[in-house]
Specification:
114 residues; alpha+beta; Ribosomal Protein L22, Chain A; three-stranded antiparallel sheet; 4 helices; 3 strands
């Protein structure tokens, strides 16, 4: 059985979040939480929040055991982009794109895949 959690409009570019998300795919959920705890990046904190939410969804909504959960997918999608301008040299302005991302973590029950 698959259970998922979604964090929308996370204020971090998808490229930065994907670097950390690749690390946890395929790991057991408890091992992924332990591993993410030692990664000193903002994207790791965002992924931890989403992973804990997915684990809570599995426990409370689907009555699954935490020991059997595996991170099947960690999907990072593009969100909207905030377009801003910053003062630049000679009285001009330079455009800035502040990207957002949607984080989706899908957990599966290991006993059902065997």
């Amino acid at each position: 059985m698959e259970v998922q959690a979604l964090t929308k409009y996370a204020r971090m570019s998808p490229k930065k979040v994907r670097e950390v998300a690749r690390v946890i795919q395929g790991l057991k959920a408890s091992d992924a939480l332990d591993l993410i705890r030692f990664i000193p990046r903002k994207s790791a904190r965002l992924l931890t929040k989403t992973l804990k939410s997915a684990i809570a969804n599995a426990e409370n909504n689907s009555d699954l055991s935490v020991e059997n959960l595996v991170v099947e997918k960690a999907i990072i999608e593009h969100g909207p982009v905030l377009k801003r301008y910053k003062a630049s040299a000679r009285g001009s302005a330079a455009p800035r794109k502040k990207r957002m991302s949607h984080i989706r973590i899908v957990l599966s029950d290991q006993s059902s895949t065997n």
